[in-house]
Specification:
heterodimer; A: Rossmann fold; 2 domains; nine-stranded mixed β-sheet; two-stranded parallel sheet; B: alpha+beta; Immunoglobulin-like; six-stranded antiparallel β-sheet; 27% helix; elongated
Chain lengths: 411, 269
C-alpha cells in the first residue's frame, strides 16, 4: 500500500511538473493522514480535442432522448461554445479515496475525483454533486465527468462518487437519499481541503462554490442545507449553481404515478430501491416491481454494468403500470404511503438558503418536470435566488446549457 | 479564444435582453377558477391570456383586515409589501433575483390558500404587475367564495405501548383521525418544528390522494417492530389529530417515546 502511494505521489509530482511550468514546486504529501484525500490514480486529459470538439470521453447526461438541438442550436455547436469560455484546456484528474459515511452514519471509505487546471492558480473549490448515472464506468472517479469541465476556469472541482459507485460499487446506491448523498459530497470536500494545501494548490479564496444538475441539482441544495446546519464554520458558501433538480421528490414521483408515464424509466426502481435503502424502510421490492423488473433489477441496476439509457431499454416501457405492481401504485396501501412519506423527507425544499443561488430549469423538461422548479420558487420566495427558467430543450440538453451558463458566470 | 468569449458574452447578453422583453407589460386578461373550498382552504386556478403576464394574488376571509379593502387598495398593499421584502432581500446580498423572479407569478398555475377562517366569506384578488416598473397594470380581478362550516372538534387521544405495539384510543370513536411519528432529529433538522412537519405531511397526503386510506376510526394498533427504519434508543414524536372533510379538525396531540426492540418507552414532556 505504501509502495502504491509512493508510485502515485511520484506520478502526481511528474504530472504537475510536466503540465505546469508555473507550479513545479509540489510539496511532500503525507498520505498517512487519514483525514485527507488519498489518490490512487493521476492522469491528465484535455477538455477539447485538437479539432475543437469536446473530448469524447466526457460523460454527458444521457436521458435517452434524441434531442440534438436547443431551439435551433445544435448540441455539437453548444459544446464548442462551452470550450470558448474556458481558460486552461488541460486538466489533472486525481482519483482517490476519502473517509466518508455510510447511510447509517458509520465510517465508510468512498472514492471521488479531484480535477485541477494543469496550470495557473486555483481560485476556489467547487463541490459538485453528480447527475444520475447507471454504470460504474460513468462514475466520476472512473470517467471524465461533464461538470469537471469548469475546473478549466481555474477551480479545484471535487466530485464524490455517491455510495454505490467507485470503490463502493458493490453496494446499493441510495438514490435520492439526500442525507447520505449530500454527506458524501461534504466529506469529499473536507478531505480535499488539506490535500490541496499538501500539494501546494491551496485555493486563493476560502469560499467554496456548490454545483449540480438533475440528481446533483437536488443534492446540491441538500449539501447547502447540510453545510448550513453542521459545517458553517468550515465552509463559507460563495455561490450555488443548481439545475434540473427534483427538489420536490414526492411531486416528481407522483407526476409519473398520475400520468402512468415516466420520462426516465430507470429512475422509478432506482428511487424506490434507493429511498428504501437510505431510509431503512424495510419495503420488499416484490411489492413494488412488476415480475420482469423484479427478476432482473439486480442485474440491470445493481450490477452497475449498464448506463441509464441501456437500463431504460432493458426495462422496455415508460408506462408505470408495466414497471410497478398495482399494490405499489395503490394509494390506499400503507407501504406506498410510507414510500411517499420518505420522499417528502428527502425533498430539498424545507430550509432557507443563506447563500446566493442560481437555479436553471428547462420549461419543457419531462424527465424532471418543470413543476419542481416552480415548487422551489414558491418555497424559496424572498430568498437570494436567481431563477433562469426557459425552453432549454429536454433534460439532457438543458444540462449542457446549464454547464455552459455556469462556466460563463464563473469569474 | 478571446473572440469566441466576446461573441458568447454578446449572445448571452442578447438572450438576457430578449428574455426580459418577453415579460408582458401591457394589460392582459386573467380568469380565476375556484375548484374547491373547504373550511380553511380554497383551491383555485389562474389562467392568464398571455403566459408572460406577471401577477400577484392575495386570498383572505372576513376575519382579516385586508378583507375590507377594495381590490385596488389590496392590490396596492400586496405590491408594496412585496417591494419592501424585495428591498430587504437586496440589502442582504450583492447578488439577487429580479423582482419578477422573486415575487411575481407567471403562466397558468394552480394555487391553494390555507389557514382561512371557517364558515366565512372570502375573496381572492389578483393584480397584474409590470415587472420592469413594478406598477400595477389595469384593474385587479376579484372573485368571492365562502368557506364551509368549521368541523373542529374537541377530540383527545390516549396513546400507550404494550412492548412495541402502539395503541391509540380516541375520545370519540365515531370520528376519523390521522397519526404519524417522526424522529426528533428529522423533525427538527428537516422541518424546524413538529407542526410544520405534520402539516406538510398531511398536505402532501391530501395533494396526492392518500388521506382516505390513512385515516383511522376507533381504537387503532400498530406494531412498531414492523418499521425497519426505527433506531433503538432514539427519541420519536407521535402526533395525532382528528381529520375530517379534508381538514385537520382538532388540536394536535403529541407524545414522546424512545424506541427499543424489546419495548417502547413513553417519555414525559
Amino acid at each position: 500500500m505504501v509502495e502504491m502511494k509512493k508510485i502515485v505521489f511520484t506520478a502526481l509530482t511528474l504530472l504537475f511538473a510536466l503540465a505546469s511550468c508555473r507550479h513545479p514546486e509540489i510539496q511532500y504529501v503525507d498520505f498517512h493522514n487519514s483525514s485527507t484525500f488519498h489518490p490512487y490514480s493521476v492522469k491528465s486529459a484535455d477538455v477539447a480535442m485538437p479539432d475543437g470538439s469536446l473530448n469524447p470521453e466526457v460523460v454527458l447526461l444521457d436521458d435517452g432522448s434524441e434531442d440534438t438541438k436547443i431551439a435551433s442550436t445544435p448540441i455539437t455547436s453548444m459544446a464548442r461554445d462551452l470550450l470558448g469560455v474556458i481558460n486552461c484546456n488541460r486538466l489533472i484528474h486525481i482519483a482517490g479515496t476519502f473517509e466518508g459515511h455510510d447511510v447509517d452514519g458509520t465510517p465508510l471509505v468512498q472514492s471521488g475525483k479531484l480535477l485541477l487546471p494543469a496550470e495557473g492558480p486555483v481560485k476556489n473549490i467547487i463541490l459538485v454533486s453528480h447527475f444520475t448515472i447507471g454504470a460504474n464506468s460513468e462514475c466520476p472517479s472512473e470517467a471524465f465527468p461533464l461538470e469537471g469541465i469548469v475546473a478549466s476556469k481555474g477551480y479545484a472541482v471535487a466530485i464524490a462518487d455517491y455510495i454505490g459507485y467507485g470503490v463502493t460499487a458493490n453496494r446499493i446506491h441510495p438514490y435520492m437519499h439526500t442525507e447520505s448523498t449530500a454527506r458524501s459530497v461534504v466529506d469529499m470536500g473536507l478531505a480535499v481541503l488539506p490535500f490541496l494545501e499538501e500539494i501546494g494548490r491551496k485555493p486563493e479564496s476560502d469560499e467554496i462554490i456548490l454545483m449540480g444538475y438533475s440528481q446533483g441539482g437536488s443534492t446540491t441544495m441538500a449539501v447547502l442545507d447540510l453545510i448550513q446546519d453542521e459545517y458553517h464554520d468550515t465552509f463559507k458558501v460563495k455561490q450555488v449553481y443548481c439545475g434540473g433538480g427534483p427538489y420536490d421528490l414526492a411531486a416528481t414521483f407522483d407526476v409519473s404515478m398520475e400520468l402512468d408515464q415516466t420520462g426516465i424509466p430507470s429512475a422509478i426502481p432506482m428511487i424506490v430501491q434507493g429511498i428504501n435503502e437510505g431510509e431503512h424502510l424495510g419495503l420488499e421490492m416484490k411489492d413494488f416491481f412488476q415480475e420482469r423488473l423484479l427478476n432482473n433489477y439486480q442485474e440491470w441496476i445493481n450490477s452497475k454494468k449498464y448506463p441509464v439509457k441501456e437500463i431504460n431499454k432493458l426495462i422496455g416501457s415508460s408506462a408505470l403500470h408495466e414497471i410497478m405492481t398495482p399494490e405499489g401504485r395503490d394509494k390506499n396501501s400503507p407501504k406506498t404511503a410510507r414510500l411517499y412519506k420518505a420522499l417528502l423527507l428527502n425533498s430539498t425544499l424545507y430550509f432557507i438558503p443563506h447563500a446566493p443561488v442560481y437555479m436553471l430549469h428547462s420549461t419543457v423538461d419531462q424527465t424532471v418536470p418543470f413543476q419542481n422548479a416552480l415548487s422551489a420558487k414558491a418555497w424559496f420566495k424572498g430568498c437570494d435566488i436567481h431563477y433562469d427558467f426557459d425552453d432549454y430543450g429536454k433534460h439532457g440538453t438543458a444540462c449542457l446549457k446549464f454547464i455552459m451558463k455556469v462556466a460563463s458566470m464563473l469569474p | 479564444m478571446k473572440k469566441t468569449v466576446v461573441i458568447l458574452l454578446a449572445l448571452l447578453a442578447f438572450t438576457g435582453c430578449s428574455k426580459k422583453s418577453r415579460l408582458e407589460t401591457s394589460e392582459c386578461n386573467f380568469q380565476i377558477n375556484i375548484t374547491q373550498v373547504s373550511a380553511t382552504k380554497v383551491y383555485f386556478e389562474v389562467v392568464p391570456d398571455n403566459v408572460y403576464a406577471c401577477y400577484l394574488w392575495w386570498a383572505c376571509t372576513s376575519d382579516s383586515k385586508e378583507y375590507d379593502l377594495s381590490k385596488e387598495e389590496l392590490a396596492r398593499q400586496m405590491l408594496s409589501d412585496s417591494k419592501i421584502s424585495y428591498e430587504a432581500m437586496k440589502g442582504e446580498s450583492d447578488v439577487y433575483a429580479s423582482f419578477a423572479d422573486a415575487f411575481l407569478f407567471r403562466g397558468k398555475r394552480t394555487f391553494t390558500c390555507k389557514s382561512l377562517m371557517p364558515d366565512a366569506p372570502g375573496k381572492i384578488v389578483l393584480a397584474q404587475v409590470n415587472p420592469n416598473t413594478r406598477e400595477i397594470i389595469g384593474e385587479p380581478v376579484e372573485v368571492r367564495f365562502t368557506t364551509t362550516e368549521d368541523n373542529y372538534r374537541d377530540m383527545t387521544f390516549r396513546a400507550s405501548f404494550q412492548g412495541t405495539v402502539l395503541t391509540i384510543i380516541p375520545s370519540d370513536p365515531s370520528r376519523t383521525y390521522f397519526w404519524d411519528y417522526i424522529s426528533e432529529r428529522q423533525a427538527e433538522d428537516d422541518f424546524a418544528t413538529l407542526y410544520l412537519y405534520y402539516y406538510n405531511l398531511v398536505y402532501m397526503y391530501e395533494d396526492y390522494g392518500f388521506m382516505a386510506g390513512l385515516c383511522k376510526k376507533g381504537t387503532d394498533s400498530f406494531d412498531l417492530s414492523q418499521d425497519a427504519n426505527l433506531v433503538p434508543g432514539v427519541k420519536y414524536y407521535l402526533v395525532i389529530s382528528a381529520y375530517e372533510e379534508g381538514e385537520i379538525s382538532s388540536d394536535l396531540t403529541f407524545y414522546n417515546f424512545v424506541y427499543y426492540p424489546e419495548g417502547c418507552v413513553m417519555e414525559e414532556d
